[in-house]
Structures are given as structure tokens and as C-alpha cells.
Design a protein that fits this description.
Layout: H1 3-15, H2 20-27, E1 31-33, E2 40-45, H3 48-57, H4 59-69, E3 75-80
Parallel strand pairs: 2-3
Antiparallel strand pairs: 1-2
């Protein structure tokens, strides 16, 4: 399953289980990143604070919800966005070294 599609399904499910303000603040800004490991859902948050908050308070919920759609998923990882010039959610391709 493509991670962008997996994340959209996961977001839709989470949106029905939490209030709109929390969803818009913590979940809507997340961006799916390409990962070397297809069994890890890599998400980028707008800043380090949000990445750490999601890791601490929402990771288990995100992982269990994503596993509804992709049972083989091993983990969810969070990072802070590096590119502040592109704040809109999208799927970013991993850049070659």
C-alpha cells in the first residue's frame, strides 16, 4: 500500500475519533515522507514541538489506526520539516544523497 493512501485512510479514521480543533492542530499539517523501509510510516511535522508531542501522545493511536489498513506496518516515525518554504501537506520524495 502506498503510504500517501495509507495516511489518508488513517487521517479519515482519526478525524472521526477526535475533536476538529485537535485534528486541525496536530494531524492535518503532517506530511508523508518516502521511507527506505516500506513497513514504516514516516511523517513530517511543521516543527520539532509537534513532532515530539505526536511521538509522546498520539503515536500508539496513529500506529493502531494505520494497522487497520495495513496490518504489516511496523512503526510510525516523526520528524520536523526541514523546508519551511513549503508548508502545505503533500507527499515529499526522498532526495538522493
Amino acid at each position: 500500500m502506498k503510504h500517501a493512501h495509507l495516511w489518508q485512510n488513517t487521517l479519515s479514521h482519526i478525524a472521526r475519533s477526535i475533536d476538529a480543533h485537535r485534528f486541525d492542530t496536530w494531524f492535518r499539517p503532517l506530511i508523508v515522507l518516502d521511507s527506505d523501509d516500506s513497513l514504516i510510516l514516516s511523517l513530517s511535522a511543521p516543527n520539532q514541538y509537534i513532532a515530539e508531542l505526536l511521538e509522546k501522545h498520539y503515536k500508539k493511536n496513529i500506529l493502531s489506526t494505520a494497522r487497520i489498513f495495513f496490518p504489516d506496518l511496523k512503526d510510525v516515525s516523526f520528524s520536523a520539516q526541514q523546508d519551511t518554504n513549503n508548508p502545505s501537506p503533500a507527499v515529499h520524495q526522498k532526495q538522493p544523497n
